[in-house]
């Protein structure tokens, strides 16, 4: 089946350029020129990925990201000219999975989108299909996480982070090692990105008191700040 992407960008030239590259890779593309149109298209068409600009008329990308995340755990990539660390952290706090700054190569953007989809579809974390930690169960084949049988909704990046902790159970992990392992060597964000995602992941998992100890077993033993 063809993957479907909702591309939200108010600059017509950028939108058409990026859209062409997605189509060359056999993606079906829905285009929106502002946030209000994006939400209308999102309600009408099931998509696999949202690529979202921030500075737009009628409804900005922050608002769109927040609204989509309230409804769905679909992967979200933010593209923007805003390069401040605080802006990137804002995106991640709202639930974005990738943050790409302008100018960028459309070819590389599509490659990163494909990589994100592979992770979201569960092609990472190979090994035993079921990981059990107390009341926490991770089904890698089905890409599901449950606590005492209750489904836990995780974004693709939160799920990838959880699998990284499981893979390195009992290992002392630095923030740098987590950035490299989960975000990749080419990611230029700072350590606050790790802290933000771990905080959100723990908030979702800490519905039972003993799960804090479970997270420690995963390797959440950050090196002391210098």
From TrEMBL:
Q: Which GO terms describe its molecular function?
A: phosphorelay response regulator activity; transcription cis-regulatory region binding
Q: Which GO terms describe its biological process?
A: regulation of DNA-templated transcription
Q: Which domain of life is it from?
A: Bacteria
Q: State where the protein is found.
A: Cytoplasm
- The segment(s) forming the OmpR/PhoB-type domain are 128-224
Q: What is this protein called?
A: DNA-binding response regulator
Gene3D superfamilies listed in its UniProt record: 3.40.50.2300, 6.10.250.690, Winged helix-like DNA-binding domain superfamily/Winged helix DNA-binding domain
Secretion signal, residue range per the UniProt entry: none
One of its Pfam families is: Response_reg
Native organism: Brevibacillus fortis
Against InterPro entries, the record matches this protein to: CheY-like_superfamily, OmpR/PhoB-type_DNA-bd, Sig_transdc_resp-reg_C-effctor, Sig_transdc_resp-reg_receiver, WalR-like, WH-like_DNA-bd_sf
| Residue ranges: DNA binding | 128-224
